[in-house]
Structures are given as C-alpha cells and as structure tokens.
Amino acid sequence: MSGGTGQLKVGAVVITMGNRPAELRALLDSVAKQDGDPVEVVVVGNGSPVPDVPEGVRTIELPENLGIPGGRNVGIEAFGPSGSDVDILMFLDDDGLLPLTDTANKCREAFADDPRLGIVSFRIADPDTGETQRRHVPRLRAADPMRSSRVTTFLGGANAVRTRVIAEAGPLPAEFFYAHEETDLAWRALDAGWMIDYRADMVLHHPTTAPSRHAVYHRMVARNRVWLARRNLPALLVPVYLGVWLLLTLARRPSGPALRAWLGGFKEGWTTPCGPRRPMKWRTVWRLTRLGRPPVI
What percent of the chain lies above the pLDDT cut of 70? Predict the structure, then answer.
C-alpha cells in the first residue's frame, strides 16, 4: 500500500445483478474519468453474469446471490485480505454515477488529512432534479443536505472506507443480505475509535427510488434491526432501542401487508442466529449520543 500524503491508493467495488448494463457502463466510465491515479475497479456479479465492462476492470461472477453485504465482501477480498492492496475502497451502486471528476482525489485528501477518519458517506442526488432525499442524509437533522458533518452511519452504495477499518472492525455482516449492514459496520468502526463523515461535496448521481420497491424490504428491515441490536448494543439498551423502533413503525401506520411482513421479520430477528455478539463500549454509546444519534433511536 502507498502511504504518503495525497498518494493513497483508491479502489472501487461495484455489485451488479446484470440487469442494468447501460447504467453500469456509465458508472464505470465516470470512475475512469477521475482525476489523479487510476481507480482500480472490481465488479461482482451477484448470482448473475457481469455485462461487458471496459478493459482493465476486473470481474467476479458468483454462482448465487450472496446479498449486498456478501457480494461486497467478495469484492473487498479481491483487493487482498480486508482490501489491504489499497488504502481506500469506494462502494458504488451500479446505477449510480460520479458527476464530478475530483471525487477520488477528495477521498484521498480527506483520509490523508484526518488519520482517525474511517468512513466517508457521499451525498446522493437525483441526476434530473439535483434533489437529495431526506433518508439519504445519515443523521437525524437532515433538513439541509448541503451541510457536511460527522455522522454515525453511512450510505451503502455511495461511500469510501479506509481499508484499515475493515481489517480492525471486520467485514460487512453477510448474514444481513440486505438492510442495515452499513450501520452494523459503522457501529463497530466507531467502537474501534474511527470517525465517519457525511460529505455534501462528494456526490453520486442516483435516480430517486423508494426502498420499499424491494419485495423483501419490510421483513429484512425489521429482522436486521433486531440483529443489529442483538449484535452490537449493551444488553440494557437492546429492549429500549427495539421498543422505540416498534413504536415508530406503528406510528407511521404502514399498510396491513407491510405491517405483517414487518412484525414477521421482527419475530424472525429474535428467533434466528444473528452472528457474533460484540456489544459496544459505553464510551461508544456516549460518542454516538454526542454525535446526535444515541443508539436508542
């Protein structure tokens, strides 16, 4: 790995289901146009063939869909153990696009300037309207998406991670398959002493979509919320955190089918294995609270 200031080596992992070849090609072209040293890219076909990609882009085709975190973990290991062949890994959605050519260099500068910075969350903007959805700003006070800040989590398909974070905190939780895997890694990174920034000036264009378009959305969100708490929170906070989320879900008055799927996932989260339990330190709870998001909401 290169280690000089401004010389940090950047790689990128892109997961695809093979159903958006034009969008994938546009994303890869935008990565190739980044200023500075070339960004090495690995595209992982998650249970599907990888469409044609530009020369120099590495591809891995998995025989089955391992889910988003599982596929990204395969991409990480393509850069050496825990991604050790590079200093920084960008994780980008296959239907996204980097509209600016300085994003990779801004990542290099951000991580070089702050040795405790572990993860950067990009701003997601609709390519037609420029709008950033409130849910894409990873903090409670999300009214101003143009304000950069320290945060407690990050966006899965628009971010950059220092590979030392993965080496110290571990990979994404493959068993989650979809939903909340970023927060699981974020909490472990914060517990290991790293910080997370939301950067409004690092932009990924992505069409405005609703997460509920995925058939498994409500079940996965509920199940993984329980797993997240069981894996990471001190025992005293587990019922508080999950009780708050249960009340918030009921207050939003979901449709009957959505509520049944959510409650089924909530039950599944308690009755199925969630992976290793490593409760965070109480000083990490305090850090999360000081950053504006105590781990009870």
Answer: 96
pTM score, whole prediction: 0.95
Residues, the chain: 297
* Rounded Cα–Cα distance for residues 49 and 45 (Å): 6
Bridge partners, 97 (sequence order): 205
Question: Which are the contacts of 209, defined by CB distance < 8 A and separation ≥ 6?
Answer: none
pLDDT digits (tens, 9 = 90+) for 230-253: 999 999 999 999 999 999 999 999
Q: What is the pLDDT of residue 212?
A: 55
Cα distances from 110 to residues 80, 161, 186, in angstroms, run 23, 11, 18
pLDDT, position 14: 98
User: Which ranges constitute the DSSP H helices of the chain?
Assistant: 21-32, 67-77, 103-113, 163-169, 181-191, 217-232, 238-251, 256-271, 282-290
- DSSP H helices, 50-118, are 67-77, 103-113
| Closest alpha carbon to 291 in 183, 159, 151 | 151
Does residue 189 contact residue 280 with C-beta atoms inside 8 Å?
no
pLDDT tens digits, one per residue of 129-156: 999 999 999 999 899 999 999 999 999 9
Q: Are 159 and 90 in contact (CB under 8 A)?
A: yes
The pLDDT value given to residue 216: 85
Order of strands across the sheet that contains 58-61: 58-61, 40-45, 10-16, 88-93, 158-162, 117-125, 195-205, 149-151
Q: What average pLDDT does the segment 35-46 reach?
A: 98
Phi, psi (rounded to 5 degrees) for 237 = -90, -15
Contact between residue 11 and residue 41 where contact means Cβ atoms under 8 Å apart? yes
